[in-house]
Design goal:
Elements lengths: L34 E2 L11 H8 L15 H11 L6 E4 L1 H13 L6 E4 L6 H7 L4 E4 L18 E5 L11 H9 L6 E4 L20 E6 L12 E4 L2 H11 L9 H12 L1 H24 L2 E2 L7 E6 L4 H10 L2 E2 L1 E2 L9 E4 L3 H16 L3
Parallel strand pairs: 1-11, 3-4, 3-5, 5-6, 6-7
Antiparallel strand pairs: 2-8, 7-8, 9-10, 10-13, 12-13
Helix pairs in contact: 1-7, 2-7, 3-6
The chain binds pyridoxal-5'-phosphate.
């Protein structure tokens, strides 16, 4: 943990330091036998072709800089999503893409808007890039209220499905927000869209101010390679590239470019793996309900659950002691919830059986 310095300890040069309160990432424990359901990673390996290619990778090529345009990856994505390569931008995870997009598109003096309960990196980037921001409260059922996004603003960003609630907004809601915001950039963060959501990608044709951001970290089982991308109008992507090439030309390393492109090519594997996670999620919903949990109807690879009697923090700690890791935030509105990533069927069985035993003490 970083220590926050007291005022009187600040020496002169420190006055010129860009001071920010960093994002707190989910912990990455590595214990034998642990069940890791805290950062929404995929429980299955990437496509078999990725392993084959990784095994015969030519390390001699590491001598050279990678392609600054990441053309193999960009082309694979353009082909898969039926857009032009000029409409695709890739980065080091979607966090990199999002941060770059904030820096590129949110330069107005009016506040950017995002939900009060959402991905907690947005306010960190706003702070880092000195972007004024305002949050719009989700309604009681955790849905976005599109009318909140009719106020004057410098841009809009929200995930769909939202995190950490898992709730999906309809494309009608997304378009309603777009229609009200033709004069700013609207970013839809689709990190979880492959688990049963509907992508706003078709709207890119009609809205040149819409940027769709996705990631290989969740549905494509490649969090460790750090691959994210976005799709938008050629104009938007052009501006993003101008900023990227003014910041760091070689963001994407060679293995990520090659292996990422291979993952995109194996669509059958991708569909099977995501379908399996969705099936497990739906089964686990029923079992959690029986144990006294309630939750918004997740369309993501996690469930955001609250127990009718047992405090979330207590369950979180008990699970942790049993080497079952889930995510908990002691924050307004969500301090009674646990975000539980969908793992393999076997991992979820172990979670459920632990919770069954644990809940017995309370009945
Ligand atoms: C996980 C996540 C991301 C970032 O993922 P990367 O690993 O950086 O690609 C972005 N947005 C949301 C909502 C996420 O949950």
């Amino acid at each position: 943990m970083r220590k926050h310095r007291k005022k009187e300890d600040i020496v002169s040069w420190e006055e010129n330091v860009r001071k920010v309160v960093p994002y707190v990432a989910g912990e990455q424990p590595n214990k034998p036998g642990m069940i890791k359901l805290n950062t929404n990673e995929c429980p299955y390996p990437p496509a078999p072709g990725v392993e084959r290619l990784a095994a015969k990778m030519d390390c001699g090529a590491f001598r050279l800089y990678p392609d600054p345009d990441a053309a193999v990856l960009v082309d694979a994505l353009a082909k898969y999503y039926h857009v032009k390569p000029e409409q695709v931008f890739v980065g080091v995870g979607s966090d990199d893409v999002l941060s770059m997009a904030f820096m590129t598109f949110f330069n107005g003096s009016k506040p950017i808007l995002f939900p009060d309960v959402t991905y907690s990196f947005y306010d960190v980037w706003a702070d880092l890039h000195r972007i004024p921001c305002r949050t719009c409260p989700l309604d009681e059922d955790w849905h976005i209220r599109p009318e909140d996004y009719r106020q004057p603003n410098g841009g809009v960003v929200f995930p769909n499905p939202n995190a950490p609630t898992g709730l999906l907004e309809s494309l009608d809601t997304v378009e309603e927000i777009l229609r009200a915001n033709r004069d700013v950039v609207v970013i839809v963060d689709e990190a979880y869209v492959d688990f049963g959501g509907k992508s706003a990608l078709p709207l890119v044709e009609r809205y040149d101010n819409l940027l769709i951001v996705q990631t290989f970290s969740k549905s494509r089982a490649m969090a460790g390679l750090r691959i994210g991308f976005c799709i938008g109008s050629e104009k938007l992507i052009g501006y993003l590239n101008d900023v990227k090439f003014s910041f760091n030309s070689y963001t994407m390393n060679l293995p990520s470019q090659i292996l990422g492109a291979e993952a995109v090519r194996d669509d059958a594997y991708f569909r099977a793996a995501t379908a399996k996670i969705v099936a497990t999620r739906e089964r686990v919903k029923g079992e959690l309900r029986e144990l006294g949990f309630s939750f918004p109807d997740s369309k993501a690879n996690f469930i955001f659950a609250s127990h009718e009697v047992i405090p979330a923090r207590q369950i979180f700690q008990a699970l942790r002691e049993a080497d079952i890791y889930v995510r908990y935030w002691n924050k307004p509105r969500i301090s009674e919830f646990l975000r539980i990533t969908i793992g393999t069927d076997e991992q979820m069985d172990r979670l459920i059986s632990f919770l069954k035993d644990y809940a017995k003490r309370y009945w």
